[in-house]
Each structure stands twice: as C-alpha cells, then as structure tokens.
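Minimal example, chain plus phosphoenolpyruvate.
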Amino acid sequence: MKNKIWVGTNWKMTKTIREGLSYTEELISIAENISSNIELFIIPSYTALVPIKKLTSNSRVHIGSQNMHWEDQGAFTGEISPKMLDEIGVNIIELGHSERRQYYNENDEDINKKVHSGLKYGMKPLVCIGENIEQKANGISKEMLAAQLKVCLKDLTEEQAQQVMIAYEPVWAIGESGIPADATYVSEIHQFLREQLMNLFGDAGSAVPLLYGGSVNFDNFIEYIDIEDVNGLFIGRSAWNTESFEKILHRLDEHLFA
Ligand code: PEP
C-alpha cells in the first residue's frame, strides 16, 4: 500500500516554449482527474521555466530545472544559479542525470555541492544515480550506487535528507538504446538503496522517496510501481506527449488509489 508517489518527466532538450506551454496546459487539466496521492512534476528547458511557472502556479504540477550550479553568482558562463531558480519559484532541481555525468563530466562531489545549495533555498534535489553496463557486467553495481549515494548526500542532516528524492536510473536502461530492467533486479536494487539510506540517516532514510526511471512505459510501469521500495516513476520518452502520459497516469491512479 503506497500513500503518496512522485511521477514526473524530464523533457531534456526536446521542447520549445510554445510546445512546453501547450503540453503543460493539457497536463494541468489531466491532473484535475488524478488522485492527489500522485505528486506530478515536469522538468522543462530553462527558457520555458518562467512561462511554465506562471501557468502552473495555481495547479498541482511542480516544476523542476534540469541542472544548477552551486554558487549564487559568479564568472560561470552558461550556468544557472540557485538564486536565479529560486526567483522563478522552481520546486525541484534534477541533479546528476547520466547525460550530465557522461557528456559534461559532472561528478558526485559537484552534485553534493549542488544538493546543499538547493536545500539552502528550500528547493528539492532530485538526485539521479545509476550504474553503467560495464559496472553491471563486472558485478559492482551495488558498490557504485552506494558510493554515489554516500558522496552525493555527504554532510546532510537527517532533516535535510528527508527533503531529497533519489531517482535510480540504470544507465543501460535509459533512452532509445536502453534495455528495460527486469523488475526483480529493480526490486533488489531499491531494497539495497533503502538499506543504504537508513545506514546513512537512520529512520529519516525511510522517508526519502526512491523513484525508478529507465524505459518506463505503459506496458511495464505497473511491475515497477508495485515494488515495495519504489516510491515514484521518473519517465522520459513515454511521458513526452500528454496522450501517452495520460494513459499511464489514469491506469496508475486506478491501480493504486481507486
Ligand atoms: C531518462 O533519460 O532519464 C529516462 C528515464 O528516459 P526514458 O524513460 O526515455 O528511458
């Protein structure tokens, strides 16, 4: 039995402001018929954040940013600061997506600084972790994930830890060439992540939402959400058009909360 789950999508570099606004209008109206036990969020491009914040301000759709620098201001060309995102009213900061790690060399130490900065402004860090295919083949997935969690969440108090969400996204399961993970594997890993969170933060570790992401779609999402330690879904391609996202949301609502 789940009390509350988080379901959201990162648009990556796929939508213009106009496309984002029309998607968001549709999602707001879909959300009116979805149980409030489902916390909905979207993570638009930076250019769309301001108009989308305006559009969502009287709705239950939370908005997030795809990345953030840890400093409030400075000589960091191309970066966006926590102060700037706070000014917009962003609720969630996605950190450490595998594409950020792979193409922009983002590491766990950087992510840890960003987690602390975001929390200072009352924004909710959504920290993405996941092993790659070589690490899985070498049997070191759990070691990698434990290290990612430990470093990304370093020096957080128990109270702060409860403001964070974790998205477990095996790198090999994400995107066009991703292979959907076996539910048994996801279950084993989420149970392991929960244990690690409880080792780090005691009882507070049980309150940290653990989302699953990686080729989640209409045909497989029930298997994932039924896993005990899965507290939400982080969906890419299958949530990028509202028709397909709506189908998932209605079925999910029916399955868990009807
Ligand atoms: C992602 O890229 O984080 C993701 C979950 O994408 P997809 O659902 O398309 O695999």
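The chain has one domain: 5-257. The mean pLDDT is 97.
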